[in-house]
Design goal:
34% strand, alpha+beta, 27 strands, five-stranded antiparallel sheet, single chain, 9 helices
Length: 403
């Protein structure tokens, strides 16, 4: 592994690594991974491209490879730098950007990338946006129709509106009257959704009456980006798909006190025909069996009494003594200077920059701790920890959080 600096037009032949000719019209960073590949980040055939490009130079064959690039792609910036974290990922740091768009991970050999390489039969890389700060795990709540899970979720949303949010599902059906794109659903073309499903961008999906419905990883991450904890209300099969995905979540199954009580509740609603009730009961029986025996769920709550079940749900989520106006803390933004250099010591990235005269502090270093990061493509890479720091005679002193 190795790191190469950014390259400009005047530096090409003299400084390009391993004899690789870099684009003479754009700022690029070249990173060696393993014994044979150099990843050139920032390269693009189109000078007006709105995202950072990626190309690969195979040193064993002296040939360029243009990979399939998955994930949400970062926009170009000034002063870009990069460093290899291991044989699987490259960290790209964008200069002249704030911390919510500063750190990006280019995955070159993670489990997700290897899976996509096998499926597509071609070279693949994937972008994952780095997010500073901790994030609460999303909550997957499942249970048979009529068990009361919708009521429980609504009470949770009403009591803690600043803490929880729903992801917006995707569908290939046409919008109905008064339905807004991005609010009620993300309305999309079938070919687009099918492609995204194949690329692993969906946590779960199903075909209903000839249309596709599903929950994308991006939709869940968008809720977390707003400083809220995402709640997913999905069936057992959907929960199984989420469990098999890269998303870390808490899985809760709401169970009726008895099958007879569930049937009673369904009939009291008076909203379905007898045929519909019988279908729901058949589905409920299968879901209850799976929910209680598969080990799919982390917690099982019996809804014998709605208020008691709700109190147990709050206790499980650590909300029993929580102020209803409490908000999930969102890290404060800081600015990454254009001119900076990066180096790596174990799981820490040292980012040095030139302090301006206006800066009151003499601090000119960030320390990015990657030891606790979670997630990755096709979602975000979360839990980055960054601190202001400065060198001392005894090493590096970290001060308050910069985020």
């Amino acid at each position: 592994m190795g790191e190469a600096p950014a390259f400009f037009a005047d530096d090409l032949q003299e400084h390009s690594p391993n004899g690789v000719l870099l684009n003479s019209k754009s700022c690029e960073t070249a990173i060696d991974i393993g014994c044979s590949k150099t990843y050139v980040i920032g390269a693009t055939e189109n000078e007006s491209a709105s995202t950072i490009g990626v190309r690969i130079f195979d040193r064993s064959t002296n040939e360029w490879v243009i990979p399939t690039v998955l994930g949400i792609k970062p926009k170009p910036s000034e002063g870009q730098s990069a460093i290899a974290l291991d044989e699987e990922r490259i960290l790209v740091i964008k200069g002249n950007s704030t911390s919510d768009d500063c750190f990006w991970f280019l995955e070159v050999d993670t489990a997700f990338v290897r899976e996509q390489k096998t499926r597509l039969g071609t070279e693949v890389v994937a972008w994952s946006k780095g997010v500073v700060g901790e994030a609460e795990k999303p909550i997957v709540i499942s249970g048979p129709s009529g068990v009361g899970k919708g009521t429980l979720i609504n009470k949770l949303m009403e009591d803690f509106p600043s803490m929880f949010g729903f992801s917006v599902s995707h569908t290939t059906r046409a919008p109905r009257n008064n339905e807004l794109n991005g609010v009620h659903y993300h309305f999309t073309e079938r070919c687009v959704m099918e492609r995204d499903i194949k690329e692993g961008k969906f946590l779960e999906f199903a075909a209903v009456h000839g249309n596709l419905y599903g929950t994308s990883i991006e939709a869940v991450e968008a809720v977390t980006d707003r400083g809220k904890r995402c709640i997913l209300d999905i069936d057992v099969q959907g929960a199984r798909s989420v469990r098999a995905s890269s998303l870390e979540a808490i899985f809760i199954f709401i169970c009726p006190p008895s099958f007879e009580e569930l049937e009673k509740r369904l009939r009291l609603r008076g909203t379905e025909t007898e045929e519909q009730i019988q279908k729901r009961l058949r589905n409920a029986k299968a879901e209850i069996e799976q929910g209680n025996s598969s080990g799919l769920f982390d917690h099982i709550l019996v809804n014998n009494n709605l208020q008691t079940c709700y109190e147990n749900l709050k206790k499980l989520l650590g909300l029993s003594d929580c102020d209803k106006n409490t908000k999930i803390s969102v890290p404060e933004l800081f600015h990454m200077p254009v001119e900076h250099t990066v180096s790596k010591i174990e799981q820490k990235i040292l980012i040095n920059y030139i302090a301006t005269e206006e800066e009151k502090s003499a601090t000119n270093m960030f320390v990015l701790d990657l030891s606790s990061i979670k997630g990755g493509a096709p979602g975000r890479t979360r839990s980055l920890n960054i601190r202001l720091a400065k060198p001392s005679t005894n090493g590096i002193i970290c001060s308050k959080m910069a985020s």
